Amino acid sequence: MNNKTRHIGQDKTRLASVGIGAMSFSNFYGPCNDEQADSILTAAIDLGLNHIDTSNVYGMGVSEQRIGSFLAKQGRLATDFFHIATKAGICRDPDTGVRSFNNEASHLESELDKSLVRMGIEHVDLFYVHRRQPDIPIEEVAGSLGRLVQKGKIKQIGFSEIAPSSLRRAHAVFPVGAVQSEYSLSTRAPEMGLVQACAELGTTLVAFSPVGRTLLTDRPLTFEAAQGLDFLRGNPRFLSPNYEANIATSAGFRAYAADNNVASASLAIAWLLAQGDHILPIPGTRSVAHLNELAAARNIVVTEQMKAEIEAILPVGWAHGDRYSQAQWVGPERYC
């Protein structure tokens, strides 16, 4: 098992085995300004973390704008620093905030073009459909994305939060480079078929929220802090009594990490890396210190004995409460 590097799908470019989720650049998990985003991206270069994951809806373009602003300051070498992924397909009404999904070819290309302008680049390495529009067959969407590859606007196609069966259908039309899904020690549903399908097809499983939205770190969000964030306020795992139960159970993992002289976040990501060479975690952070913890996962070898010991502390299904609220479940495909 190679802890240091990964490649995505059919693109054999070697990437660091830990990427960066740039949702945090858009005030999603608390305030973030241009200087903080710049400091994270600068530290990422120093650490050799070269895969950046963003979306057109993160801060309604703010995340992409901050990446673009940073790249603009780097001059002619800007495109050498990062392998960039972005997404489209989620629409949000500017007045009501109501979400909808649009997978029409014209919409996806239009949103991609806007993303390229915001980031000041000519193409992205990976372009995801962020959420599926159920009434458009995924085969049709895969074909639309494939045409963007042929136009040179993207290098590979991807989908976020789809079922293994949908992956197989899309892949039969055009090779799917990556599927993005929540995957961590607290969310192991991908092991019910998605991990296996990705490995079989040569598709990379890009794992978001790999530290359980802080539950698998040394400093989990307090109940009050979680309730202050729009996304977590209604999240079942952060509501009483689930929150208190999750903190109590995950305390055993924090103690285990301390006994092994590593940060909990580092160990949580190292555990993911040990699940397969086709797994690429993309943690997000606004802190350079935390980024160093996340990057340190590449230096931790999780042995079979350690896997068993961690499993005893955090067995499959240990987390109390669903990973999404009922409203948040609109869009992701359930498959188990």
Give the SSE string: EEEHEHHEEEHEHEHEHEHHHHEHH
Instruction: Assign the structural class, choosing from mainly alpha, mainly beta, alpha/beta, alpha+beta, or little secondary structure.
Output: alpha/beta
Any idea of the CATH class?
Alpha Beta
| Apparent shape | globular
Q: State the strand order across the main sheet.
A: 3-4-5-8-9-10-11-12
- Classified in CATH, the superfamily is NADP-dependent oxidoreductase domain
Low-pLDDT ranges: none
**Percentage of β-strand residues:** 15-25%
Rounded to an integer in angstroms, the radius of gyration calculated over CA atoms is 19 Å
Average per-residue pLDDT, rounded, comes to 95
* Alpha-carbon distance between the two ends: 28 Å
In CATH, the topology is named TIM Barrel
Task: Give a short synopsis of this structure.
With 336 residues, the protein is an alpha/beta fold. It is built from 13 helices and 12 strands.
Task: Describe the secondary-structure layout.
Blueprint: E1 5-8, E2 11-16, E3 20-21, H1 34-47, E4 51-53, H2 62-72, H3 78-81, E5 83-88, E6 90-92, E7 99-101, H4 105-119, E8 124-129, H5 138-150, E9 154-160, H6 164-171, E10 176-182, H7 194-201, E11 204-208, H8 223-227, H9 230-233, H10 242-259, H11 264-273, E12 279-281, H12 288-295, H13 304-313
Parallel strand pairs: 3-4, 4-5, 5-8, 8-9, 9-10, 10-11, 11-12
Antiparallel strand pairs: 1-2, 6-7
Helix pairs in contact: 1-12, 2-4, 5-6, 6-7
